[in-house]
Amino acid sequence: MKNSLRRLCVVTAAAVMASVAAVALSQEPPKPTPEQAIKYRQSVYKVILWNFGPMSAVAQGKASYDAKAFEHQAGRVATMAPMLIEGYPHGSHTGATTRAKPEIWQNYAEFKELMTAMVGKASALAEVAKEGDEDKSKAAFRELAGACRACHDKYRND
Amino acid sequence: MKNSLRRLCVVTAAAVMASVAAVALSQEPPKPTPEQAIKYRQSVYKVILWNFGPMSAVAQGKASYDAKAFEHQAGRVATMAPMLIEGYPHGSHTGATTRAKPEIWQNYAEFKELMTAMVGKASALAEVAKEGDEDKSKAAFRELAGACRACHDKYRND
To answer: Which residues of B touch A83 (CB under 8 A)?
Structure first.
């Protein structure tokens, strides 16, 4: 092997080893796939619905108001609500069956504002529910439902 | 119509109206179906996994430790963990595809103890993670993973 070629090999090998070492030192966690993100956000919505559903029945007069249960459910929704936005990384408009419209990622700032508004209403409901006042709780629930709908109307397929 | 028959009708109508009113006053919220419970608990597990997965990669040396991210994920798992037990009402051994063994409901007290132990480890991990110490965080994570496995080994089908 000629000297120049040998030198090139040594330099190349050193460069490869250095880059391997750099990767080992700053290993990024594996990014979630779009499918994982879609399944994640759908799961968050399902946990929300598990708690939102009984409150909705109360608000519609289909079930009687139970202050303790309502407070528990409102607290759970307030806890879950801020977890949603993580489930909408760019590129997750496709990858599994999803009702999310691609417009979300074209108007991401507005989408995020609607999410933030909803999180605020969920938090407000959880606070109000602690008072145990049926009418105030129902009114705060309707505020939250409106914030959900505002986003669904614009960014969710039927 | 004879008087006695008329009286019977009036009494019967009054009784029916009273029972309708009683139902309206103490309307139970609709109970979740077994299928809803199964979907709910699977969703809670999925939200847990979304956060547990990246911590697991760190614990296995497949990703580097990021104190802030680890703390966030540990906090989320601790928040979600107590939500699981609600998803195991009696009768929800069937109703949708589920890996939950029917033994859960035969040994429900033990199942609940394993769940409680896991919730404790999740809470401990969230506390430790706040310190930002990699080794302690990984150790607490392994404790949690062990508590998960203890229940999976006994009560989850492969």
So the answer is: 47, 76
Amino acid symbol at B103: E
Q: Is the pLDDT of residue A139 over 50?
A: yes
Question: What is the C-alpha to C-alpha distance for residues A89 and A111, in angstroms, rounded to an integer?
Answer: 12
Contacts of A62 in chain B (CB under 8 A): 27, 29-30
Collapsing DSSP to helix, strand or coil, B132 comes out as coil
Q: Which tokens hold the place of B71? A: 């703390």
Q: How far apart are CA B70 and CA B107, in angstroms?
A: 34
Which amino acid, one-letter code, is at A25?
L
C-alpha B79/C-alpha B82 separation (Å) is 7
Search chain A and give the residue with CA nearest B54: A29
Q: Are the C-beta atoms of residues B107 and B151 closer than 8 Å to each other?
A: no
Give residue-wise pLDDT tens across range B29-88: 788 999 999 999 999 999 999 999 999 999 999 999 999 999 999 999 999 999 999 999
Cβ–Cβ < 8 Å for B129, B140: yes
- How far from A67 is each of B26, B31, B35, B150, CA to CA, in Å? 13, 17, 26, 36
Determine, for residues B50 and A64 on separate chains, whether the beta-carbon distance falls below 8 Å. no
Burial degree of B137 (CB within 10 A; 0-12, 13-18, 19+): buried
Give the DSSP H/E element, type plus range, for residue A80. helix A67-80
* Cα gap A13→A2, rounded to integer Å: 17
Contact (CB<8Å) A46/B39:
yes
On whether ipTM exceeds 0.95, the answer is no
Tally C-beta pairs within 8 A across A and B.
69
Query: Could you tell me the two tokens for A51?
Result: 């708690």
Nearest CA in chain B to A57: B29
